[in-house]
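Bug #2210: token dump truncated for PNPLA domain-containing protein?
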Amino acid sequence: MYFHGAVMTKPMALILQGGGALGAFEYGVVTGLVEEGWHPRVVTGVSIGAINAASIAGAKGGDIPASLHRMWDAITLPAMPLLPAVVQANMSLLGNPKFWQSRTDYWNMLSWNSLCSTAPMHRTLAAQLDFEQLNDPLHIRFGVAATSLHSGGQVTFSNYTAKEAHIDTGHHKAVRTRLTPAHVLASGSLPPGFPATRIDGKDYWDGGLFSNTPIDSLLNLLEPDEIDTLPIFVVDLFPTDDQPSPTNLLEVQTRATALQYQNRFWAQYGGSGRLEGFLAMLAALESVADGTELEGMPSFAWLMRLRALKNVQVIASTPAAAGGDHDFSSGGVRNLYEAGRAAARQHLARSSGRPALRAAA
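Reproduced locally. Full output below:
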């Protein structure tokens, strides 16, 4: 624990997934965690998770719930009482004035590489957030992940890289830079709706196309003394276990999206031993490495950084309603926010601060 202002808070790290309007659940989760005394020391995000992460790190005056509220108030469509809820849930397909606008240059359609412009979100980010604060790692270490169109790999743009961070692993590069609204937009440039975002002469698409759970990005922001102790909360927007088969095309599309962006991280580790077995192997390896050639190997250093996985706690949403990822209606956003806030409190009550690892799917 440490003091933030005059209040004693519990430090945490956050990993925020992409998922369009489902990001309102993350908004609720983070608000709930902060209300319960947790304060982010490190945060990474992808797509809408990058927008939420930026709203946290760039919160004016350091008021995270207020910053998230302002951002979501800006991108939530106003209520239209005379229209059925199911119609309002789909209104964002026509545009979202503070997020994106549909293209109208139909005479140029044959050369389009996107259906919309994200210029409104660039303006929203610039107006809503304190980018001086966001770029200060002493305030919060912050990173957003995007997919490079040139390498096919993931690039994390961040305001910091930790000691012994892994800058270039081939499939993932960590770039410390001065972050702007463009870096946040790059993380959420999901085709074909949104255009690629160009940064320093290179084009980037949505980071979720490579990995929708940017744990590697977060690991490069952790200091050595945090690896064994700092709680890491992952908000899982696409739970896929034990669901019935889809019965119509909208449900088919919703399930396909969930399968594409579900959290696959756990499946990479442990084999039949699952994540718990992988962590036990790391502990055994660490115990025999002292004074051996293992200590000088970059791959061993990265394995030791993966010890942080024992601190992961997953807060999962319920499966998204059909088409829910584009429901920016007032009622849809409010329901997801309240569900996220309640889920955070329920998780803390169940876990009592102990890790809650999700097994491989």
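Output looks complete on our side. DSSP finds twelve helices and twelve strands in the chain. Marking as cannot-reproduce; reopen if the truncation happens again.
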